[in-house]
Design brief:
Strand content: 15-25%
Bound molecules: pyridoxal-5'-phosphate
Number of strands: 14
Helix content: 40-55%
Number of helices: 20
Length: 442
């Protein structure tokens, strides 16, 4: 299998090249040159398959002969230490819980798979991998955790001082070892600009290369972060069938979206043969994609702050990928996708009502997915519905606790993080000191 860029499809790259390049030179994103089909046997066996078996079968189609099966199995087993259970909260309405990984957000799936794949590739080439990542919240934690303790790897995380939540900051700064947290006196945009400058600094790159050090990002658009986001759609469908759903039933997935990585994972799953009837692109008021679905015009705009902050994205990075997967056609996209968007007030009201009716606690992102599903089910009342619950509610105590009227119990992984000693390097928002820090790790 080869991969082509969304910006020009003449150059074909291998899986390894796509993983380490992240973006092509025109900032295009990599997509598979064709979508492989899963055999009928895969679907007949699906209800009995674990998330790891699904991950192996699906990843194999994309990785091809670049990683031998036995190694790929080890990579998938190492990455997927968490399951994605389905919890029914009302008739025809289930939550697909994606927050059972080490940092309690769905980003663990992508980050862990990327880490396992990269570490496999460098163990073969004996290179040193230096990952630079800027974060405003969950991504940094998931990436840091995924690469923690991997031999031959160092991770530098740039985060904006005072702009991440206490729990998130703890998740970044208490790991130590090969994870280096830089607290930058600036905003997320400053951190992102610094990361970009590092990754395009010719002198630094040359010095790294001379020392067999691969300087790269762990960007959310990386192909290896995208692939595992298709696995759990199969897992959810398998669970529904196991619980007695006829295989020809219409299934709708609602995906609370920001950069649309999860939704693109759903499109891939559908194209590989999973019988998905509709995918709901559910957003907060940053409604660039729902507006596109309505009008056919894509208008990126600055993001607006909401209670579902991980989805505050005005220019979704996976949009070019989505469009490419539909052959550039708005009309084709409308055959599968439904758009909708919700205000913060509607989101919080949903958290409250689901808690009152089902005693189930949503996080603000999952709540947007829930609302999207309810809206779609009014058009297709005979369908079975699943929404992606993307983060553990205990990560958002300020928003959720007043709505459910009690303190949320911290899962052990979070409770432990709060006990540990934090360590970060405070730096001014200047390129020089940041580069000096990174240079001594090259
Ligand atoms: C990142 C994130 C999202 C948005 O996912 P995309 O794949 O970028 O659309 C939703 N919920 C949570 C909790 C997240 O961290």
């Amino acid at each position: 299998m080869k991969f082509v860029s969304t910006s020009e499809n003449s150059t074909k790259v291998t899986f390894r090249e796509a993983v380490f390049a992240s973006l092509d030179r025109n900032r295009g994103l990599f997509v598979p040159e064709f979508i492989p089909q899963l055999p009928q046997q895969f679907f007949s066996d699906l209800p009995a398959k674990s998330i790891r078996e699904i991950g192996f079968d699906v990843a194999r189609l994309f990785v091809g002969n670049e990683i031998p099966d036995s190694d790929l199995r080890r990579i998938v087993d190492h990455a997927l230490i968490m399951d994605a259970p389905l919890v029914r909260i009302a008739p025809s309405c289930s939550a697909l819980e994606l927050f059972h990984g080490p940092t309690l957000a769905f980003k663990d799936f992508g980050a862990r798979f990327l880490a396992a794949v990269s570490s496999y590739f460098i163990s073969e080439s004996r290179e040193h991998l230096l990952i630079v990542v800027a974060t405003s919240g969950d991504t940094g934690g998931a990436v840091a955790h995924a690469f923690l303790d991997l031999p031959g790897v160092d991770v530098v995380i740039l985060f904006p001082s005072g702009h991440v939540s206490e729990i998130q900051e703890r998740q970044l700064t208490t790991l130590g070892k090969n994870v280096h947290a830089l607290e930058i006196n600036g905003t997320f945009d400053t951190c992102q600009a610094l990361a970009k400058e590092l990754l395009t600094d010719e002198l630094l790159l040359r010095e790294a290369k001379a020392k067999s050090c691969l300087l790269t990002s762990a960007n959310s658009v990386n192909l290896a972060r995208l692939l595992p986001q298709s696995f759990y759609f199969f897992r959810a469908w398998a669970d529904l069938v196991k619980c007695g759903m006829p295989t020809n039933r219409r299934v709708i997935f609602s995906i609370p979206s920001g950069n649309f990585g999860n939704l693109t994972g759903g499109i891939l799953a559908q194209r590989m043969g999973l019988p998905i009837f509709r995918l709901v692109a559910a957003t907060n008021i940053n409604r660039t994609v729902p507006d596109y679905l309505e009008t056919g015009i894509f208008t990126p705009r600055p993001s607006v702050r909401t209670v579902s902050s991980a989805m505050d994205v005005g220019n979704p990075s996976n949009f070019s990928r989505m469009l490419t997967l539909f052959g550039g056609s708005h009309e084709e996209m409308l055959k599968l996708l439904i758009g909708c968007s919700f205000t913060s007030e509607e989101t919080l009201a949903a958290v409250r009502s689901v808690f009152e009716n089902a005693k189930y606690i949503l996080d603000p992102h999952g709540a947007v997915g829930y609302l999207g599903l309810q809206q779609a089910l009014t058009s297709y009342p005979d369908a079975e519905g699943v929404f992606l619950h993307t983060a553990h509610p205990a990560k958002f105590p300020e928003a959720i606790e007043p709505l459910v009227g009690s303190a949320l119990t911290l899962p052990p992984a979070l409770a432990e993080v709060l006990q540990r000693e934090a360590r970060s390097y405070k730096l001014e928002a200047d390129y020089r000191p940041v580069k000096d820090f990174v240079r001594q790790l090259v």
